[in-house]
Amino acid sequence: MRNQLAIPPRSKNQSERVKRSQELIPGGSTNSLLAPDGIEFLIAKGEGKYVYDIDGRRFLDFMLGAGPLILGHAHPRIVKTIAAQAASGTQYFGLSQRAVDLAERFVRYVPCAEMVRYTSSGTEATFHALRLARAVTGRQGVIKFDGAWHGHHDLAVWSMELSPTKIPEPYPVSAGIQHGVREDLIVLPFNDIKQFRATMKEHGHRLAAVICEPVQRTISPIPGFLEALRDECNRSGTVLIFDEVVSGFRLAPGGAQEKYRVTPDLTTLGKAVSGGVPLSAIVGKKALMEHLDPRSDPKTYDFHCGTYNANALGIESAHTTLDILIEENGLKQLGELGDFARERLRATLADLNQDAAVTGEGPLFHFYLTKEPIHDHAAVRRSNLALSDAVHRKMYEAGIYKQFSKGYLSLVHSRDDIEALCDALVWGFETVRQ
Ligand code: PMP
Question: What does pTM read for this prediction?
Fold first, then answer.
Protein backbone atom coordinates (compact mmCIF):
# COMPACT_ATOMS: atom_id res chain seq x y z
CA MET A 1 0.00 0.00 0.00
CA ARG A 2 2.81 2.36 0.91
CA ASN A 3 4.23 2.38 -2.62
CA GLN A 4 0.91 3.66 -3.81
CA LEU A 5 1.26 6.79 -1.75
CA ALA A 6 2.85 8.81 -4.54
CA ILE A 7 0.38 11.00 -6.39
CA PRO A 8 0.59 11.07 -10.23
CA PRO A 9 3.44 13.18 -11.61
CA ARG A 10 2.49 16.61 -12.93
CA SER A 11 1.27 16.78 -16.54
CA LYS A 12 3.34 17.92 -19.52
CA ASN A 13 1.04 20.94 -19.74
CA GLN A 14 1.77 21.88 -16.13
CA SER A 15 5.52 21.35 -16.60
CA GLU A 16 5.43 23.81 -19.51
CA ARG A 17 3.47 26.33 -17.45
CA VAL A 18 5.93 25.98 -14.56
CA LYS A 19 8.73 26.69 -17.03
CA ARG A 20 6.90 29.79 -18.26
CA SER A 21 6.33 30.94 -14.67
CA GLN A 22 10.09 30.85 -14.16
CA GLU A 23 10.59 33.12 -17.17
CA LEU A 24 8.04 35.62 -15.89
CA ILE A 25 8.55 35.50 -12.12
CA PRO A 26 12.02 35.37 -10.52
CA GLY A 27 12.66 31.85 -9.31
CA GLY A 28 9.14 30.94 -10.44
CA SER A 29 8.22 31.75 -6.84
CA THR A 30 6.21 34.32 -4.91
CA ASN A 31 9.19 34.77 -2.59
CA SER A 32 12.73 33.69 -1.72
CA LEU A 33 11.69 30.20 -0.65
CA LEU A 34 11.55 27.92 -3.67
CA ALA A 35 9.43 24.82 -4.14
CA PRO A 36 11.43 21.60 -4.69
CA ASP A 37 13.15 21.64 -8.05
CA GLY A 38 11.41 19.66 -10.80
CA ILE A 39 8.19 18.98 -8.87
CA GLU A 40 6.89 22.55 -8.45
CA PHE A 41 3.19 22.97 -9.14
CA LEU A 42 0.82 25.83 -9.85
CA ILE A 43 -2.06 26.22 -7.44
CA ALA A 44 -5.58 26.41 -8.82
CA LYS A 45 -7.52 26.62 -5.55
CA GLY A 46 -7.57 26.01 -1.83
CA GLU A 47 -10.44 24.29 -0.06
CA GLY A 48 -10.46 23.44 3.64
CA LYS A 49 -7.28 21.53 4.37
CA TYR A 50 -6.37 20.97 0.73
CA VAL A 51 -4.79 22.84 -2.14
CA TYR A 52 -5.36 21.70 -5.72
CA ASP A 53 -2.97 22.28 -8.60
CA ILE A 54 -3.92 23.01 -12.21
CA ASP A 55 -3.90 19.26 -12.99
CA GLY A 56 -6.52 18.79 -10.27
CA ARG A 57 -4.04 16.97 -8.01
CA ARG A 58 -4.89 17.34 -4.34
CA PHE A 59 -2.34 18.16 -1.61
CA LEU A 60 -2.96 17.93 2.11
CA ASP A 61 -1.89 21.37 3.24
CA PHE A 62 0.39 21.87 6.24
CA MET A 63 1.79 25.06 4.66
CA LEU A 64 -1.46 26.97 5.18
CA GLY A 65 -0.43 30.07 3.30
CA ALA A 66 2.75 30.29 5.45
CA GLY A 67 0.66 30.41 8.60
CA PRO A 68 -2.37 32.70 8.22
CA LEU A 69 -4.88 29.96 7.35
CA ILE A 70 -5.50 28.82 10.90
CA LEU A 71 -9.14 28.15 9.91
CA GLY A 72 -8.13 26.41 6.66
CA HIS A 73 -8.84 27.61 3.13
CA ALA A 74 -12.10 29.34 2.31
CA HIS A 75 -13.65 28.83 5.74
CA PRO A 76 -17.39 29.45 5.21
CA ARG A 77 -17.51 32.17 7.87
CA ILE A 78 -14.49 33.96 6.43
CA VAL A 79 -16.00 33.75 2.93
CA LYS A 80 -19.24 35.19 4.29
CA THR A 81 -17.40 37.90 6.21
CA ILE A 82 -15.38 38.96 3.16
CA ALA A 83 -18.44 38.99 0.90
CA ALA A 84 -20.43 41.06 3.38
CA GLN A 85 -17.61 43.55 3.93
CA ALA A 86 -16.85 43.81 0.20
CA ALA A 87 -20.40 45.02 -0.30
CA SER A 88 -19.71 47.84 2.19
CA GLY A 89 -16.30 48.73 0.76
CA THR A 90 -12.96 46.96 0.82
CA GLN A 91 -10.68 49.84 1.77
CA TYR A 92 -11.15 53.15 3.57
CA PHE A 93 -7.71 54.45 4.66
CA GLY A 94 -9.63 56.48 7.25
CA LEU A 95 -10.32 54.91 10.63
CA SER A 96 -13.41 52.72 10.96
CA GLN A 97 -15.36 51.92 14.12
CA ARG A 98 -14.64 48.24 13.53
CA ALA A 99 -10.88 48.90 13.53
CA VAL A 100 -11.26 50.59 16.92
CA ASP A 101 -13.33 47.62 18.12
CA LEU A 102 -10.56 45.26 17.03
CA ALA A 103 -7.98 47.40 18.87
CA GLU A 104 -10.16 46.98 22.00
CA ARG A 105 -9.94 43.24 21.54
CA PHE A 106 -6.14 43.28 21.06
CA VAL A 107 -5.78 45.34 24.25
CA ARG A 108 -7.99 42.86 26.08
CA TYR A 109 -6.15 39.74 24.87
CA VAL A 110 -2.47 40.71 24.53
CA PRO A 111 -0.73 41.49 27.84
CA CYS A 112 1.60 44.26 26.55
CA ALA A 113 -1.01 45.95 24.37
CA GLU A 114 -2.17 49.39 25.50
CA MET A 115 -2.32 50.91 22.02
CA VAL A 116 -2.49 49.50 18.50
CA ARG A 117 -1.29 50.61 15.07
CA TYR A 118 -2.28 48.47 12.08
CA THR A 119 0.06 47.47 9.28
CA SER A 120 -0.36 45.01 6.41
CA SER A 121 2.50 42.51 6.74
CA GLY A 122 4.76 41.13 9.43
CA THR A 123 7.71 42.83 7.78
CA GLU A 124 6.11 46.26 8.10
CA ALA A 125 5.27 45.58 11.71
CA THR A 126 8.80 44.56 12.74
CA PHE A 127 10.35 47.35 10.64
CA HIS A 128 8.26 49.92 12.53
CA ALA A 129 8.61 48.35 15.95
CA LEU A 130 12.38 48.62 15.50
CA ARG A 131 12.25 52.18 14.18
CA LEU A 132 9.92 53.22 16.98
CA ALA A 133 12.40 51.80 19.48
CA ARG A 134 15.23 53.78 17.86
CA ALA A 135 13.13 56.93 17.66
CA VAL A 136 12.15 56.85 21.31
CA THR A 137 15.46 55.76 22.83
CA GLY A 138 17.65 57.80 20.50
CA ARG A 139 19.87 54.72 20.26
CA GLN A 140 20.79 52.66 17.21
CA GLY A 141 21.85 49.19 18.34
CA VAL A 142 19.67 46.09 18.02
CA ILE A 143 20.05 42.51 19.18
CA LYS A 144 18.44 39.82 17.05
CA PHE A 145 18.75 36.10 17.58
CA ASP A 146 20.47 33.71 15.22
CA GLY A 147 17.91 31.89 13.09
CA ALA A 148 15.00 34.22 13.88
CA TRP A 149 12.72 35.41 11.10
CA HIS A 150 11.45 38.98 11.23
CA GLY A 151 10.69 39.60 7.56
CA HIS A 152 12.71 41.05 4.70
CA HIS A 153 13.71 44.61 5.64
CA ASP A 154 17.34 45.60 6.10
CA LEU A 155 17.56 44.81 9.82
CA ALA A 156 15.80 41.46 9.45
CA VAL A 157 17.78 39.75 6.71
CA TRP A 158 20.69 38.61 8.84
CA SER A 159 21.56 35.22 10.26
CA MET A 160 18.30 33.56 9.37
CA GLU A 161 17.43 29.93 9.65
CA LEU A 162 20.04 28.32 7.43
CA SER A 163 22.70 31.05 7.31
CA PRO A 164 26.30 29.87 7.73
CA THR A 165 26.41 32.12 10.78
CA LYS A 166 29.46 32.54 12.96
CA ILE A 167 28.12 34.21 16.07
CA PRO A 168 28.39 37.06 16.99
CA GLU A 169 29.19 38.08 13.40
CA PRO A 170 25.86 38.81 11.63
CA TYR A 171 25.51 36.97 8.32
CA PRO A 172 23.67 38.89 5.56
CA VAL A 173 21.23 36.74 3.59
CA SER A 174 20.72 39.52 1.04
CA ALA A 175 22.91 41.84 -0.99
CA GLY A 176 22.07 45.52 -1.15
CA ILE A 177 21.61 46.12 2.58
CA GLN A 178 22.13 49.77 3.50
CA HIS A 179 25.58 50.56 4.91
CA GLY A 180 25.69 50.93 8.66
CA VAL A 181 23.07 48.32 9.45
CA ARG A 182 25.71 45.71 10.18
CA GLU A 183 27.37 48.03 12.72
CA ASP A 184 24.04 48.46 14.50
CA LEU A 185 23.31 44.76 14.81
CA ILE A 186 24.43 42.09 17.26
CA VAL A 187 23.37 38.49 16.59
CA LEU A 188 23.21 36.11 19.55
CA PRO A 189 22.25 32.46 19.97
CA PHE A 190 18.64 31.88 21.02
CA ASN A 191 18.30 30.47 24.54
CA ASP A 192 21.84 31.37 25.67
CA ILE A 193 21.10 33.30 28.86
CA LYS A 194 24.74 33.73 29.84
CA GLN A 195 25.87 35.19 26.54
CA PHE A 196 22.83 37.45 26.40
CA ARG A 197 23.43 38.84 29.89
CA ALA A 198 27.14 39.39 29.19
CA THR A 199 26.37 41.21 25.94
CA MET A 200 23.77 43.41 27.59
CA LYS A 201 26.20 44.30 30.34
CA GLU A 202 28.69 45.55 27.76
CA HIS A 203 26.39 47.03 25.09
CA GLY A 204 22.99 47.52 26.75
CA HIS A 205 23.43 51.29 27.14
CA ARG A 206 23.66 51.75 23.35
CA LEU A 207 20.91 49.30 22.36
CA ALA A 208 17.54 50.57 21.20
CA ALA A 209 15.90 47.15 21.01
CA VAL A 210 16.10 43.45 21.57
CA ILE A 211 13.83 41.68 19.11
CA CYS A 212 12.98 38.01 19.42
CA GLU A 213 10.47 35.42 18.40
CA PRO A 214 9.54 34.12 21.87
CA VAL A 215 9.10 30.71 20.26
CA GLN A 216 11.75 30.91 17.57
CA ARG A 217 10.39 29.21 14.44
CA THR A 218 9.40 26.00 16.29
CA ILE A 219 12.04 26.18 19.05
CA SER A 220 10.69 26.78 22.55
CA PRO A 221 12.41 29.14 24.97
CA ILE A 222 14.22 27.41 27.82
CA PRO A 223 13.04 28.32 31.33
CA GLY A 224 14.43 31.71 32.31
CA PHE A 225 15.41 32.89 28.84
CA LEU A 226 12.51 35.26 28.21
CA GLU A 227 12.72 36.44 31.82
CA ALA A 228 16.40 37.27 31.26
CA LEU A 229 15.48 39.34 28.20
CA ARG A 230 12.91 41.26 30.24
CA ASP A 231 15.28 41.77 33.15
CA GLU A 232 18.23 43.05 31.11
CA CYS A 233 16.07 45.32 28.95
CA ASN A 234 14.61 46.86 32.11
CA ARG A 235 18.08 47.44 33.46
CA SER A 236 19.44 49.17 30.35
CA GLY A 237 16.33 50.99 29.14
CA THR A 238 16.25 48.87 25.97
CA VAL A 239 12.90 48.22 24.26
CA LEU A 240 11.95 44.54 24.32
CA ILE A 241 10.07 43.53 21.17
CA PHE A 242 8.35 40.17 20.90
CA ASP A 243 7.75 39.27 17.28
CA GLU A 244 4.54 37.27 17.66
CA VAL A 245 3.67 37.27 13.96
CA VAL A 246 3.60 33.47 14.22
CA SER A 247 2.90 32.80 17.90
CA GLY A 248 0.25 35.52 18.30
CA PHE A 249 -3.34 34.21 18.47
CA ARG A 250 -1.89 30.74 17.98
CA LEU A 251 -0.32 29.62 21.27
CA ALA A 252 -2.81 31.46 23.50
CA PRO A 253 -5.20 34.39 23.03
CA GLY A 254 -2.37 36.64 24.23
CA GLY A 255 0.31 34.69 22.34
CA ALA A 256 3.59 33.45 23.79
CA GLN A 257 3.75 36.38 26.23
CA GLU A 258 0.58 35.11 27.89
CA LYS A 259 1.77 31.50 27.86
CA TYR A 260 5.23 32.29 29.25
CA ARG A 261 4.13 35.19 31.44
CA VAL A 262 6.76 37.62 30.21
CA THR A 263 5.48 40.95 28.96
CA PRO A 264 7.50 42.82 26.33
CA ASP A 265 7.26 46.55 25.56
CA LEU A 266 6.15 46.12 21.95
CA THR A 267 4.69 43.19 20.03
CA THR A 268 4.23 42.54 16.36
CA LEU A 269 1.19 40.55 15.25
CA GLY A 270 0.20 39.14 11.86
CA LYS A 271 -0.57 35.90 10.05
CA ALA A 272 -3.21 34.01 12.10
CA VAL A 273 -4.88 37.22 13.25
CA SER A 274 -6.99 37.63 10.13
CA GLY A 275 -7.43 34.10 8.79
CA GLY A 276 -5.74 34.64 5.41
CA VAL A 277 -6.47 38.27 4.59
CA PRO A 278 -3.51 40.67 4.92
CA LEU A 279 -3.49 42.44 8.27
CA SER A 280 -0.81 42.94 10.88
CA ALA A 281 -0.21 45.26 13.79
CA ILE A 282 2.23 46.75 16.23
CA VAL A 283 0.86 46.82 19.76
CA GLY A 284 2.49 47.92 22.97
CA LYS A 285 2.98 50.26 25.84
CA LYS A 286 1.36 53.66 25.48
CA ALA A 287 4.59 55.45 26.41
CA LEU A 288 6.15 54.01 23.24
CA MET A 289 3.17 53.78 20.91
CA GLU A 290 2.18 57.42 21.35
CA HIS A 291 5.34 58.38 19.44
CA LEU A 292 3.49 57.22 16.31
CA ASP A 293 1.18 60.21 16.81
CA PRO A 294 2.25 63.05 14.49
CA ARG A 295 1.50 65.53 17.28
CA SER A 296 4.23 63.98 19.41
CA ASP A 297 7.68 65.51 19.78
CA PRO A 298 9.35 65.50 16.33
CA LYS A 299 12.61 64.42 17.96
CA THR A 300 11.12 61.05 18.95
CA TYR A 301 8.41 60.68 16.31
CA ASP A 302 8.14 57.61 14.04
CA PHE A 303 6.43 58.49 10.74
CA HIS A 304 4.15 55.66 9.63
CA CYS A 305 1.67 55.91 6.79
CA GLY A 306 0.51 52.86 4.82
CA THR A 307 -2.28 52.82 2.25
CA TYR A 308 -3.67 49.51 3.42
CA ASN A 309 -3.29 50.03 7.19
CA ALA A 310 -6.46 48.71 8.85
CA ASN A 311 -7.81 47.47 5.52
CA ALA A 312 -11.52 46.80 5.92
CA LEU A 313 -11.39 43.18 4.70
CA GLY A 314 -8.53 42.45 7.11
CA ILE A 315 -10.32 44.03 10.06
CA GLU A 316 -13.54 42.09 9.49
CA SER A 317 -11.74 38.81 8.84
CA ALA A 318 -9.80 39.36 12.06
CA HIS A 319 -13.01 39.81 14.06
CA THR A 320 -14.40 36.55 12.66
CA THR A 321 -11.12 34.68 13.14
CA LEU A 322 -10.77 35.80 16.75
CA ASP A 323 -14.42 34.89 17.43
CA ILE A 324 -13.65 31.34 16.37
CA LEU A 325 -10.18 31.03 17.91
CA ILE A 326 -10.83 32.71 21.23
CA GLU A 327 -14.52 33.13 22.01
CA GLU A 328 -15.40 29.69 20.60
CA ASN A 329 -12.32 27.94 22.01
CA GLY A 330 -10.67 27.06 18.70
CA LEU A 331 -7.20 27.53 20.16
CA LYS A 332 -7.78 24.77 22.68
CA GLN A 333 -8.71 22.33 19.92
CA LEU A 334 -5.66 23.40 17.89
CA GLY A 335 -3.36 22.89 20.88
CA GLU A 336 -4.71 19.37 21.41
CA LEU A 337 -4.25 18.47 17.76
CA GLY A 338 -0.72 19.88 17.87
CA ASP A 339 0.11 17.69 20.90
CA PHE A 340 -1.25 14.67 19.05
CA ALA A 341 0.80 15.53 15.95
CA ARG A 342 4.04 15.83 17.92
CA GLU A 343 3.35 12.60 19.79
CA ARG A 344 2.61 10.68 16.56
CA LEU A 345 5.66 12.14 14.81
CA ARG A 346 7.87 11.11 17.74
CA ALA A 347 6.47 7.58 17.70
CA THR A 348 6.74 7.27 13.90
CA LEU A 349 10.34 8.48 13.82
CA ALA A 350 11.21 6.12 16.69
CA ASP A 351 9.64 3.20 14.75
CA LEU A 352 11.83 4.19 11.83
CA ASN A 353 14.87 4.04 14.15
CA GLN A 354 15.54 7.62 13.26
CA ASP A 355 17.16 9.97 15.76
CA ALA A 356 14.95 13.02 15.79
CA ALA A 357 13.90 16.03 17.81
CA VAL A 358 10.25 16.92 17.35
CA THR A 359 9.66 20.61 18.01
CA GLY A 360 6.78 23.07 18.14
CA GLU A 361 3.97 24.23 20.38
CA GLY A 362 0.24 24.62 19.84
CA PRO A 363 -0.54 24.03 16.16
CA LEU A 364 3.11 24.45 15.11
CA PHE A 365 5.27 21.39 14.52
CA HIS A 366 8.47 20.24 12.94
CA PHE A 367 11.12 17.54 13.31
CA TYR A 368 14.88 17.70 13.04
CA LEU A 369 16.96 14.63 12.32
CA THR A 370 19.47 14.73 15.12
CA LYS A 371 20.50 13.07 18.37
CA GLU A 372 20.70 16.35 20.30
CA PRO A 373 17.92 18.52 21.69
CA ILE A 374 17.15 21.58 19.60
CA HIS A 375 17.51 24.79 21.61
CA ASP A 376 19.01 27.05 18.95
CA HIS A 377 19.72 27.30 15.24
CA ALA A 378 23.32 26.13 15.50
CA ALA A 379 21.80 22.77 16.52
CA VAL A 380 19.41 22.98 13.56
CA ARG A 381 22.34 23.42 11.19
CA ARG A 382 24.14 20.46 12.76
CA SER A 383 21.10 18.24 12.15
CA ASN A 384 20.83 16.08 9.04
CA LEU A 385 19.24 18.68 6.78
CA ALA A 386 20.09 16.84 3.55
CA LEU A 387 18.12 13.78 4.69
CA SER A 388 15.30 15.95 6.01
CA ASP A 389 15.06 17.79 2.67
CA ALA A 390 15.06 14.48 0.76
CA VAL A 391 12.25 13.11 2.93
CA HIS A 392 10.25 16.34 2.65
CA ARG A 393 10.62 16.17 -1.10
CA LYS A 394 9.22 12.65 -1.04
CA MET A 395 6.31 13.85 1.12
CA TYR A 396 5.56 16.42 -1.60
CA GLU A 397 5.43 13.53 -4.05
CA ALA A 398 2.98 11.84 -1.69
CA GLY A 399 0.71 14.87 -1.80
CA ILE A 400 1.81 16.46 1.48
CA TYR A 401 2.31 20.20 1.17
CA LYS A 402 4.61 21.29 4.01
CA GLN A 403 7.42 23.78 4.34
CA PHE A 404 10.77 22.00 4.70
CA SER A 405 11.32 23.86 7.98
CA LYS A 406 7.92 24.06 9.65
CA GLY A 407 4.41 22.65 9.73
CA TYR A 408 1.14 24.39 10.58
CA LEU A 409 -2.21 22.91 11.59
CA SER A 410 -5.63 24.43 11.11
CA LEU A 411 -9.02 23.91 12.71
CA VAL A 412 -10.13 21.77 9.76
CA HIS A 413 -7.27 19.28 10.18
CA SER A 414 -8.06 16.05 12.01
CA ARG A 415 -6.18 13.20 13.62
CA ASP A 416 -6.59 11.26 10.37
CA ASP A 417 -4.63 13.96 8.59
CA ILE A 418 -1.80 13.53 11.10
CA GLU A 419 -1.86 9.80 10.35
CA ALA A 420 -1.66 10.61 6.62
CA LEU A 421 1.34 12.84 7.34
CA CYS A 422 3.00 10.02 9.30
CA ASP A 423 2.29 7.50 6.52
CA ALA A 424 3.91 9.85 4.01
CA LEU A 425 6.86 10.28 6.36
CA VAL A 426 7.35 6.51 6.58
CA TRP A 427 7.05 6.17 2.81
CA GLY A 428 9.47 9.08 2.40
CA PHE A 429 12.11 7.43 4.59
CA GLU A 430 11.59 4.02 3.00
CA THR A 431 12.03 5.34 -0.53
CA VAL A 432 14.97 7.60 0.35
CA ARG A 433 16.76 4.79 2.21
CA GLN A 434 16.41 2.34 -0.71
N1 PMP B 1 8.00 37.63 11.82
C2 PMP B 1 7.92 36.29 11.84
C3 PMP B 1 8.13 35.56 13.14
C4 PMP B 1 7.66 35.59 10.66
O5 PMP B 1 7.62 34.24 10.67
C6 PMP B 1 7.44 36.32 9.47
C7 PMP B 1 7.12 35.65 8.15
N8 PMP B 1 7.38 34.32 8.05
C9 PMP B 1 7.53 37.72 9.52
C10 PMP B 1 7.80 38.33 10.72
C11 PMP B 1 7.33 38.52 8.29
O12 PMP B 1 6.00 38.55 7.97
P13 PMP B 1 5.52 38.86 6.45
O14 PMP B 1 5.99 37.71 5.62
O15 PMP B 1 4.04 38.98 6.58
O16 PMP B 1 6.17 40.14 6.05
Answer: 0.97
Q: How many residues does the chain have?
A: 434
Going by pLDDT thresholds of 50, 70 and 90, the confidence category of residue 166 is confident
Q: By alpha-carbon position, which residue is closest to atom 7 of ligand 1?
A: 151
* Nearest residue by C-alpha to atom 1 in ligand 1: 150
Which atom of ligand 1 is nearest to 278's Cα?
A: 15
Centre of ligand 1 to C-alpha 426, Å, is: 31
Parallel/antiparallel/unpaired status of strands 364-368 and 185-188: unpaired
Pocket test for ligand 1, best of 64, 126, 158, 245 (most atoms within 8 A of CB): 245
From the CA of 31, give the closest atom in ligand 1.
14
Report the C-alpha gap between 64 and 407 in whole angstroms: 9
Residues having CB closer than 6 A to ligand 1 are 66, 121-123, 126, 149-151, 213, 243, 245-246, 270
Q: Enumerate residues 6+ apart whose C-beta is below 8 A from 26.
A: none
Residue 1: per-residue pLDDT: 43
Q: Region 113-135: what's the mean pLDDT?
A: 98
